[in-house]
Amino acid sequence: MLRTSLTLFCVLYITRPGTEAAAGDALNSDAAAKLCGFSDKAKKAAARTAAKLANTASYLKSAQAAAARLTAFAMAEATWAEPAIILAAYLTGEAERQLTDLSSKMATAVRSAGQAAYAGGRIDELVLLFKHAQHSTPSSGLCISKQKTADTAADAEATESCTAGDLTAAAPDATNLQEAAIQVFSASTALTGATANSCALTAAVLTAYKKDTGNMLLLDGLIEIANGGGFDTGNLKKTAAETNVLKPIATTYTATHDYLSNGDPTDEVTAEALDKIIKPDVVGAKLKDTINSFYQYNPAKEENDIKKIATELFKIPADGSETGFIKALKKAKARVPTRDQPEPQDTMQLDYQQLAREEAKALQSLNKKANKKGPDCSNELSEGSEAYKKAEETCNKLKEAAACNANPICIYNTTESEENKKCKFDAKKATSNGVPKAETQTGGTEKTTEKCKGKLEDACKKDTECKWEENKCKDSSFLITNKLPLISASFIGFVAFKLNFMKFMKLAILRELYKYDNI
C-alpha cells in the first residue's frame, strides 16, 4: 500500500501540468529580454517628444519670419502683392494649426512620455532585482536562467536594456508603444525558466516576503508569485491594458504615435522651401483652403481650379521649374539702413528689426495715399472715353460678386446678364474711395510727378516715398510710375485688403519697434 502511494505521488509530481508553479523557479531570459526591450523603447519616448517639440518650435519661428518677409515684399512690389499675401496667409494658417496641436496633441504626448518612462522604470527595477538576487554559484541561487537551462545564468544582453542610463541624452525611438505593449504584455508571455532553481524571490510567499495569505503581486499584478512559490500559471497574469501602469500606453498611444510621426514641415522657410509649396503637382492641395478663403469663393473651388488660379498668380511653369514669383522674391531687396547694414538687403534675409522699419515705412506711405481725397472722376472719365473703357475692362474681368464689390472702382449688378458683364465700373464709387486723378493722359496711361527727383541724399532718405539709388533720389518702388488712371485692379484690390489688414499690422509693428527703440 505504501509502495503504491509513493509510486502515485512520483507519477503525479513528474507529470504535473506545465502551468503549475514551483518554489524557486527562475525567470527565463527570453521573458527578461522582452520586458527590458519594451522598457528601452518606453524610456526613449521623451526624447522623441522633445525632438518633435524642437522641430515645431523651429518651424514656427521660421514661418513667422517668412510671413513677415512676404508681407514686406507685397508692400514693395504691387505686381506680386496678391500671391505674396496668399503665401503669407498659408504660412500663418500652418503655424496656427501647429500651435493648436501643441496645446492638445503635444500636451498629450508629453504626458504619455511621462507614463512610458514611469512604466520603464518599474520594469527596470523588477528585472534588475531578479538579476542581482543570485548566488555566485548558480546552483545555490539563481533568479534569471538562460532560457530554461538549469543552473545557468542568463547572458548579460538579456537585461542590458534595463540598466540605468542618462535619458536626457537618449536618442528618439519611433516605436508605436501601444502595439509593443499589447505584444509583450499578454497572457501568452511565458515567465518560467529553470524550475526549482533556488530563487529566493520565487520561494513560498510566507518565506520570501513574510506575507501569510494570498499571492505576491509584482509590477501592478502583471507578475504573481504563487502562495506556494513560483510564477502563478507560469505566464504573465494580466495584459497591459488591465494594469494602471501600462493602460494609458496600451489603449491610447497610437494617436500620439501618429502625431509624432506626421509629415509636418520642419525645414527653415526659405525661398526654395516656398517654391516647393507652389509646384504644379502640389499647389492645388496645399493652397486650396487659403485661396478659397482669400477670394471668398462660394461655392469653394476644387483642387484643379485652384491649380489654374495659382498657376496664373505665381507664374508656375508646367515643367516644375522655378516660378516667376520665386525669381522675383529672390531678387527683391529692401532699403532698411541700420548702423551695421547701410546697403539694401535681400527681402528674405531681413530680420525683425529691419522688417519693422520696412513695414512702418510702407504703411506710412500707404496711409498717406489712403487719406488723400481723390478728385471727382465723373467728368474726366465720361462714358466712351479711353480711360473709361480701360476702367470698364478692368471691372468686366471680375466674375465673382465678392471680388467685384471689394474693388474700389467696381460694382456688381445682379440684374445684368453674363453677356452684358455684371461687374461694372462706377465713377462715383471710385471718387469716394480716393482714386487719384491722372495728371496727363496719353492712350489711357498716366505719368506721375517725380516728386523725389533732385533731392539731396539726406532729404531723400528721410522721405518715406523716396529711395536713394545709384547716387540719385528716385520715387520709391512702392509708387507706380506708369499706370492706368484708376490703377491696376490687382493693386487696388491689394490696397483694399491692406487697409483692412492694417490694424493688425500696426499692432505688430508697434510691438517690434518698442522692442528695438534703443537702436
Describe the overall structure.
With 519 residues, the chain is mainly α. Among the domains are: 16-151 and 175-261, Alpha-Beta Complex (Variant Surface Glycoprotein, Chain A domain 1), CATH 3.90.150; 445-483, no CATH class. It has 19 helices and 13 strands. β11 and β12 form a beta hairpin. α4 (81-132) packs antiparallel against α10 and α13 (352-371) crosses α19. The longest helix is centred in the first third of the chain and has 52 residues, at 81-132. It is elongated.
Secondary structure blueprint with pairings:
Elements: H1 2-14, E1 27-28, H2 29-43, H3 45-76, H4 81-132, E2 144-145, H5 177-184, H6 205-209, E3 216-218, E4 223-225, H7 247-261, H8 271-277, H9 283-286, H10 288-295, H11 303-314, H12 324-331, E5 333-334, E6 345-346, H13 352-371, H14 377-380, H15 386-396, H16 401-406, E7 410-412, E8 423-425, H17 427-432, E9 441-442, E10 445-447, H18 457-462, E11 466-469, E12 472-475, E13 482-483, H19 489-515
Parallel strand pairs: 1-2
Antiparallel strand pairs: 3-4, 5-6, 7-8, 9-10, 10-13, 11-12
Helix pairs in contact: 2-4, 2-5, 3-4, 3-13, 4-7, 4-10, 5-7, 13-19
